[in-house]
Specification:
homodimer; alpha/beta; Nucleotidyltransferase, domain 5; 2 domains; five-stranded mixed beta sheet; four-stranded antiparallel beta sheet; globular
């Protein structure tokens, strides 16, 4: 007879739904994923999305199975709103802020962790999902205090003190890359065959420019178009340049957050490697923590609390 | 019998085609417009677009009619490429750089004026259409030298010395507003009923923030989302805030271009009025010149040269 997982860890984002069955010793027994992210789901479609994803993993009857969820499922437009904790926020108590939407006729018992908001006037901000990764980072790097950077669609810069979020800010870097690439005049410059060397050279040039002059982002962007019209820059170079300008501006515009300490980068490892190059240019060391590892560690830590 | 126009002035942009019949004394005898901009036209559709627009205005036979065109019709992907003049560029000689695509079986004789490029390494840039407005500004304000700002989809900042373009730069401000409003997560915040007072308050707040911290544009943008989630900011406020952040960043990021002199703003008058508020915040006077007036003055001046 197959051993059932003890509980299920779930990361429910805007685009994707991912679940891991966790054993009594904390080991991952299975993992599943689907494209049933918040962006695609009506409110009443959530119970089926999670039971379908876990189909065959649990016997029809038996003790309740805890399903601990972080991310956008707890947004106002998600499954059930899990009200934000206010920053400065103690992440040790994350699970106390969870909400429990019903999954009728199932052994699964859902709990959705809250996000964190910052109501400070002029620095209003929100996160959902990153707070769980930060709790995970805190569990993985006991006692870490300092700046954490979380590259992504909406990058977060966070001052963490152990399990406490002191303050944070969000940069729309990844989303700017996507909308400019797909919908602006720059699409004519970045569409087409790309080669890695070319792309890398463009990234380096863009990063340098973005770090030097983050205040000129709206001007720097048009150099991509001018570069392809006047200097024959190819799509790979232009695409790398766009990415470099944006990441450079994000880092260069927030120099007042950085000191001399090593900065943990939590995110997809390929994207984090690009940020690491930017920080290296201004003399700051980084270490990369895979976002999935941080999420799992965070869900485990939240459940233990 | 109706008097025929002496020649036709044409502004052929990406989205629109506009034509004015000009009398022997420089007076506008008629004006017509259509949506047959460069963005919609295949190369072989240009002759019909202009003859259709001018239908009924000229007898089938008679002396040739000069049709002087500025704008995107001269782009590589337009009717016929009119190679750029290099900046620094003397606008007095603009008409010498014109190209003449054929309009078979018509009295109309087209000439397309060139744009201007800047090949300076690190400051590569291009314009098409604005050079004609600048020539017009020079004719309207004899001997003006200094900074000219041309708000728009791709705003231009130009150092003009009489009829000479010394240097220029392009800011993607207007296009950023459009793509973010239509395609980013910010659409959830800006879509909906707007009220003018609300919008104005948002614009003022965004302008202040953008001018103070142009280097944080990628971060400032997300405050729109956070503002609607946390502070109940309404769509009008958010839309004004977005506009203010972007215009503020454009102006604030180019403070090294501004001195104490009055700055001519050439563009749509409503948009120019928003820029005027931004410049006023940093103590710089402006005067607004309607882009259509400048274009007509520029086409007249180019033809006389």
């Amino acid at each position: 007879m197959r051993i059932e997982a003890d509980w299920v860890a779930v990361d429910w984002g805007t685009s994707n739904l991912r679940a891991w069955g966790i054993g009594a010793g904390g080991e991952v027994l299975f993992s599943r994923a689907s494209d049933q992210g918040m962006g695609k789901l009506a409110r009443d479609a959530y119970p089926a999305a999670v039971t379908d994803l876990l189909a065959g993993k649990f016997a029809p009857s038996g003790p309740p199975i805890d399903v601990l969820i972080c991310g956008m499922a707890g947004a106002r437009q998600g499954w059930m709103e899990a009200p934000y904790l206010d920053a400065p926020a103690e992440l040790g108590g994350l699970a106390y802020g969870a909400v429990s939407p019903a999954i009728p006729g199932s052994r699964l018992v859902a709990r959705i962790l809250p996000g964190v908001c910052q109501k400070l006037s002029g620095a209003e901000d929100v996160m959902r999902g990153e707070e769980t990764q930060l709790l995970g980072l805190s569990a993985m790097s006991l006692g870490f205090s300092g700046l954490v950077v979380m590259p992504g669609t909406h990058s977060k810069w966070v001052t963490l003190a152990g399990r406490r979020i002191e303050r944070f800010s969000t940069s729309m870097t990844g989303e700017l890359f996507e909308v400019l690439r797909a919908h602006s005049v720059l699409r004519h410059s970045v569409d087409g065959e790309t080669d890695a060397t070319d792309r890398d050279a463009g990234f380096e040039a863009g990063l340098t420019l973005g770090l030097e002059a983050p205040q000129r982002l709206t001007v720097n962007l048009f150099k991509i178009r001018a570069g392809s019209l006047l200097s024959g820059r190819r799509p790979g170079w232009c695409s790398g340049f766009l990415s470099g300008i944006l990441i450079g501006a994000e880092i260069g515009g927030q120099r007042d957050w950085t000191g001399n300490n090593e900065v943990p980068l939590v995110g997809g490892t390929a994207l984090c490697a690009l940020y690491a190059r930017g920080f290296a240019m201004i003399g700051i060391k980084t270490r990369i923590i895979d976002a999935t590892d941080a999420t799992l560690a965070g869900l485990k830590a939240a459940r233990q609390a």
